[in-house]
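Chain entry —
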Amino acid sequence: MFPINNFRGIEIQESDIKDKHVVIFLLVKPSDAGANYIIDKFNYLHHLAGKYCSIYPIGYSKDFFDYYKDVQPVKGVNNEKWLYSDQCFIEFCTDLSQRLKGWNYCGEPEIIVLQNKLTDDYTTSLDFRNYNYIDINYGIRKGYIDSFERFMQRLLIACQKEVDGYKAISEANRKRLKPRNVLEMAIEKMPKLPKTVKFILKDKLFYKSSKTKN
């Protein structure tokens, strides 16, 4: 869990990591319904993610250096004091919409899953080609997700399995991690799914990817 408030900072962070892993953008504003419940899980999710996944909560930072005037304090990882800014969040979402084909922020908590690229050039350290997105609250209302914490537990375990699976297969046979695999593994483990995973991932209000047709 890294409170880095802009793309350049995230790209530099990712360029310093020399292993393939999953990248998650967590879009949750403190003003969202149930946001405190999610923010309270930041510390646990950080330590569970380990080396298999980098989680970036959007709009958060350890210090904005007075750049934004609408900041509010939140409890971060390891009892650190973090700050949040709506203005920063909006700017990031605007930038993100230009990088992700067919994506626009829904207004409620979301998760975007992609992967890093092994490179010494920080401007190309994120791979947006196979991004996958889900609307958390919509998924809970529809019964696709039982709860945020249960889903994230399964999602991060799925990240570990996907990364370990990637390492076990020759580079000649598989060039990239598959973020969709991670989401499918997390969803299909939910007890009493109302519909099949294949059907659920056709619901465009819940799930979108780089391949989703408008």
